[in-house]
Amino acid sequence: MDEVKVVVAHSERATLRVGDVFLKIDADQTRTDVEVEAMAMAPIPTPAVLWRKPPVLALAAVPGTALGRLGEPSTASPSAWAAAGAAARTLHDAPLPPWPGRGLDGIAAELDDECAWLIANRVLPTDLVTRNRQVAEAALRPWTPRFIHGDLQVTHVFVDSDEITGVIDWSEAARGDALYDLASLTLGHEEHLDDVIAGYGTGVDLDVVRGWWSLRSLLAIRWLVEHGFDPAAPGCEIDVLRARV
To answer: How far is CA 14 from the centre of its chain?
Structure first.
């Protein structure tokens, strides 16, 4: 029997790997509904759904290796990063999913709450939070809704020979800002933004991408701490915030 590997586990969900099968267990089946439907709609490679028996979703492993990992240098080539940008463009040009995404007002309110929490609990210096809140303002503007992945971090994009072989973890897919996906993809890997844009094409406002880097990091820290992750690890969210100062 193949070894059972725990890929991720916290109070909301867990993912196990057994051979070439991933078993995703989610306390909220609405997220699983979104994931299954989004993968069926997406015009880019996604994992095959093997079976579903709530609360478990079984997915086939995709070939290749992850584009990178947060906090570690990526060994992927510029061409692979450009291919990721091109895949993002293909997704963003696809028909919109029927369900909505997060609204601008809700994101702004959540950002205010998280900044207040970071300062009140002395998790980060006030000037660091304040400066990044200012940078984040660039992302808080009206956008044309696109079909976005919603969590397009480097570990969710797989490549082989500079080609995209699969994009995983679609539970956050929705209508949203295309530049949020590009910011998620390059978070902590800012040196590859030019490569991503080379594959993506036009329509990339760098100030907005930087705004999403700050905004995503500010929103993530409390969740990461409460679920046993370390946003202060080298190259991770707190370092992303420090880079904006």
So the answer is: 17
129: how many CB neighbours lie within 10 A of its CB? 21
Helix, coil or strand: residue 158: strand
For residue 24, give the DSSP letter. E
> Which parts of the chain register pLDDT below 50?
none
Among 216, 229, 146, which Cα is nearest to 183's?
Answer: 216
Q: Supply the pLDDT for residue 1.
A: 53
Q: Are 55 and 26 in contact (CB under 8 A)?
A: yes
If we measure between CA atoms, which residue out of 45, 15, 44 comes closest to residue 27?
Answer: 15
CA distances, 101 to each of 98, 105, 139 (Å)? 10, 12, 15
Backbone angles phi, psi at 186, to 5 degrees: -105, 5
User: 147, 175 in Cβ contact below 8 A?
Assistant: yes
Domain boundaries, the chain: 63-242
Q: What's the full length of the chain, in residues? A: 245
CATH hierarchy code of domain 63-242: 3.90.1200.10
